[in-house]
């Protein structure tokens, strides 16, 4: 871009960021939608305010060929926002760009496999982290962000704050998980965080990449031939509770799903009856045979 183009782009880009903020978009959405504008500008090496329909179609055809459909969808939504709220234009043809409807069932670890994975994880921080994700059904970011003040040992519950969709929720805290969290916290005694970063700074969080690598390594070492990420521990939690008889709406509440349809996919993996929520979650954590406990 020449100097004039760059100045025009900078001005429009700032408007884009401002409008995203004014509409209350979450940081992850602002990051994705702003990246969409930067990406298309780099592709054409020009400010994207004068692109034709053919230009946009060519761009998305190339994007589909080189990126995942999730990226394509985010870029489409980001550019629609940019055109509607910054340029005051509507590009109806963008609705033609539709990711295919694919509904995959996630891979699930058995309770025995969960216990083996936690037991054989090499570092205590990751052992306790994986137990925490599984026994409370947390998303990766929710586990990383846990703070000391979120743990209520009197009510035996954990306050999950600013989760997906900006929602808070309360989840039962298994006794076994509380003991593990206390034991791990004693190793660092951070003022605020349950899982602080290695540098020990006040707001430095445990590294997401390190968590993912640790799980990938132990899955490989356990010779488990499934596609497992930290999020699959959450899937396993939901499925195991349903297998024990917890009703679908209780599982929906525990996971923080907006729609019961999202939770209902787990019914394709198990049968459903009704039991007490808190008792079941404690049983779920208590029945894990963890080698790092047996050896003490």
Short note summarizing the structure:
With 296 residues, this protein is mostly helical. It is built from 14 helices and 3 strands.
Largest sheet: 3 strands, antiparallel
Record the strand order, biggest sheet: 1-2-3
Which runs of at least 5 residues are low in confidence (pLDDT < 50)?
none
| Count of individual helical segments | 14
Tell me the number of strands: 3
Strand content: under 5%
Question: What distance separates the N and C termini?
Answer: 64 Å
Helical content (DSSP H or I, runs of 4+):
55-70%
Work out the radius of gyration. Answer: 23 Å
Query: Element order, helices and strands?
Result: HHHHHHHEEEHHHHHHH
The secondary-structure class comes to mainly alpha
Judging from the principal axes of the Cα atoms, what is the shape? elongated
Mean pLDDT metric: 88
Question: Topology of this structure?
Answer:
Layout: H1 3-22, H2 27-44, H3 53-66, H4 69-85, H5 111-120, H6 124-136, H7 140-144, E1 151-152, E2 157-160, E3 169-172, H8 175-185, H9 208-221, H10 230-243, H11 248-255, H12 260-264, H13 277-286, H14 291-294
Antiparallel strand pairs: 1-2, 2-3
Helix pairs in contact: 1-2, 2-4, 5-6, 6-8, 6-10, 6-13
3D structure, described in words:
- The chain has helices at about 5-20, 25-45, 55-65, 70-85, 110-120, 125-135, 140-145, 175-185, 210-220, 230-245, 250-255, 260-265, 275-285, 290-295; strands at about 150, 155-160, 170.
- It is mainly α and about 300 residues long.
- It has a three-stranded antiparallel beta sheet.
- The longest helix has 20 residues, at about 5-20.
- The radius of gyration is 23 Å and the shape is elongated.
